[in-house]
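ok so I'm stuck.
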Amino acid sequence: MEEQQQLGINDFFKNSIFKLNAFAKVSYLDVCIGMLIAILIGLFIYYVYKKTFRGVVYSHSYNITFVLMTMMTTLIIMTISSNVVLSLGMVGALSIVRFRTAIKDPIDIVFMFWSITAGIATGAGMYPIAIVGSLVMGATVYLLSKKTTKDSAYLLVIHYTEEANDGVKYHINKLHGVLKSKTVRKERIEVTVEIKLKNDNTVFVNEISALAGVNDVVLVSYNGDYAP
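replied:
not stuck anymore, here's the structure
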């Protein structure tokens, strides 16, 4: 009797699992709509990243990953939402995946999570959340990037001798520069100064290089990371 009751309980749980839409079908129309929205959102993220990029070297291949990541996340969510049993196996399989790509700029991580979040919302069929949320995110990133570009930071590297010491100091004070490093090698001096430019006027570079005793002047974009 106890064995029959145990078998009955086991059959009950098995039947309950398979009746909970464990193998629900996803229509081709839903798949097409979801993938189309994922592509559009991914392209929107691609466009926003390209327009707001303020790093040193722009990577086109890295930007493409945002589109593909949005699409892949959408497919994964569609798959696991249609099959309870497969969702458990998918979670176990994804737990062993490790991303080891070095992310230098923290804003790149934001774009990566944006792609994943948009893919999750799209795959779950929450299209208004995915679309409206992406529009709000894009507008926020664009406005903030525009605000920071009005006062861009640069590193000014100057190699000179003692003869140009006074002239270099005058120009640094005029530019309201912040000294980052200074290296003295016998008669040669190297200084690295952080300056802010509100426009692309770089006439001062020619003025400094024209000073007697100045060997060379280098102006590079500065995103906040500096290793002396």
